[in-house]
Amino acid sequence: MAKKETAEKTVRVRLVKGLRGVQSRHRLSVKALGLNKTNDVRELKDSPQVRGLINTVYYLVRVEE
Known about the structure:
Elements: E1 10-15, H1 24-32, E2 41-45, H2 48-56, E3 61-64
Antiparallel strand pairs: 1-2, 1-3
């Protein structure tokens, strides 16, 4: 069998700042990404929805592709 040519791309997202003093909408975006504490890392499927959440909280997270 041949390998799948359309391998799903993933994005590693790390929470680098705390959520104290952050807008409640942005806290919900961080929670939707699956990040709870500072330095938490999640590997997520690279999709427009995930990219939109990352763009919302760009100042709190670091993207490691």
